[in-house]
Predict the structure.
Amino acid sequence: MADWRDLPPILDAAQVADLLGMNVQMVRRYAREGRLPAYKIPGGRTFRFITSEIIEFLKAHPAVAAESAPEPETAEDL
């Protein structure tokens, strides 16, 4: 996928799945559960996502938090 700054301001589930490297069904499930910020148009069935909120979600959930990252081992520790 291209740089996220090239994305439209509002995404559908397939675009979010592509951006996050996830399955579309999982994106929809996360949206239903409130794990991803999502919106539905009144009377609509599909989720819509605001690109900047998805990027902020990613920034708020790093794979390894800096403070909880393990200390590198030294030869003395072995």
Notes: Residues 12-43 form one domain. The mean pLDDT is 85. The beta strands are 10-11, 39-40, 47-50.
